[in-house]
Design a protein that fits this description.
Layout: H1 3-15, H2 22-34, H3 40-46, H4 52-65
């Protein structure tokens, strides 16, 4: 996974006064590895450690951060 992707996401989140948490890193990693849009069910299948409620919250934060 490119380090610059994580740096970009971290910078966008920092600009939105949000932290780049472990769960958010996991979501970004799943999406980056897929190389195509995924449904929430597909993201949860790809990383069983993610909780559904956490996924929805983190997707909303990532979307708001750009």
């Amino acid at each position: 996974m490119p380090a610059d992707l994580h740096a970009t996401v971290a910078a966008l989140l920092a600009d939105a006064d949000q932290r780049y948490t472990t769960a958010r890193r996991r979501v970004v990693a799943v999406l980056e590895a897929a190389r195509r849009p995924l449904s929430t069910a597909e993201i949860l299948d790809a990383d069983r450690a993610l909780a559904q409620s956490s996924l929805y919250r983190n997707l909303a934060v990532l979307e708001q951060a750009g």
